[in-house]
Design a protein that fits this description.
single chain, Spore Coat Polysaccharide Biosynthesis Protein SpsA, Chain A, 2 domains, three-stranded antiparallel β-sheet, 25% helix
Length: 475
Amino acid sequence: MSDRGLALARSKMQAEGVAPAAIETFTRFYRLLESGETGLVREADVEPLVDLPRHADLDVSEADAQDALARTAIIKLNGGLGTSMGMDRAKSLLTVRDDAPDGGSDDESGALSFLDVIVRQVRAARAATGARLPLVLMNSFRTRDDTLAALAPYGDLAVDGLPVDFLQNREPKLRADTLEPVEWPTDPSLEWCPPGHGDLYPALHASGVVRALLDAGFRYASVSNSDNLGAAPDGAIAAWFAASGAPYAAEMCRKSPADVKGGQLVVRKSDGRIVQRETAQTHPDDVEVSLDPTVHPYFHTNNLWFDLEALAAELDRTGGVLELPLIRNEKTVDPTDASSPAVVQIESAMGAAVAVFEGATAIEVGRERFLPVKTTGDLLLMRSDVYELTADYRLVAQVDAPLVKLSKTYKPIAAFDERFAAGAPSLRGASSLTVEGDWTFGAGVTAEGDAALADAGEPATVPDGATVTADGVRA
């Protein structure tokens, strides 16, 4: 049965022009899947990763930082559609700020998307250091056209003839009962899924980007998600990584009470190698201890650094098929219809390559390097006065960021924007903001302390200039 499923899946991928390396990667994972491989990393088999070097403690000269950045390329993963927010285009095209940077000029004002901020972070770093700093995006077939159109006004972006993007692969969703490619004539696009960000490796191999960067004189790459504006070009980390001689490094943050998801690095007892354990790879019996910051103090930011020579050698050796652990992701073919057929999506995590590269290492970074936007609550925080946009387009927190929880009413971006049409409330004086039900916020609203709005049972409004406290609205 599964041989038939694999043959059908391979034929479907070949017919759509999927890169051979991606097909072979899918084939490897398929065999693991049919063998019953779960990809789970058990707590009994690992030890915590502790005592990392700290970004804050690095003593790097300006010359060393500039030299390292001069040999560094920036790669951003830009394949996400923001479907969890009801979007059908690249999440990076969402407006994240609507103000001029601190110290900037009036002509820099106006709505800025994630992509705008990323480009301007790179341009600011180029201007400050003289580094060429190419920016290369990994787009998906659904994000490429809109993204390239949004980049068109930035005529100075391309460097030395290098491409500004390369394509992520795609693979068929598999029926959970037969492991054959699912058919969904109502919307055939839902028959496909991205292979997870572990697809970075076969996509890089197929595109030839790593070799092109090496040929252009670059030695290192900084890789991060496009929805994490904290991962700006950083000369100190670049210099530390260059001096380390490591083939690979991961940026890790210390856990806070809000950090209940995300991957972590652990040390495999059998061979002492650092390996990654994603949430989906954690056995239910191990979840509690995996989240315990006294045991596992760090979580993975998904900010990675590569020695391009080591990466090129591994991609050439394996044909782009790195031996990453399987992540089995069970969903329905239509994510919005729980009654649609159950499917399995074969995925992998790019951070899992830490186990592939002997001598891989990690560094502890501050929360300023990890500012992801996964929900509209995160987006509200980023748009608020908790953050200021600096002249080099970094988002700097002015206070400890409060925890924002919005009801499901705000989950679609259109509904969210409608209810905050007058702008985000002031959150600098808030330790948290919890909104239940359906509230539309007026202009000049302030949240204080553990601000909370209970479900009014019908749509309600926070008036202009009001204050939201633990007791509700105060005019």
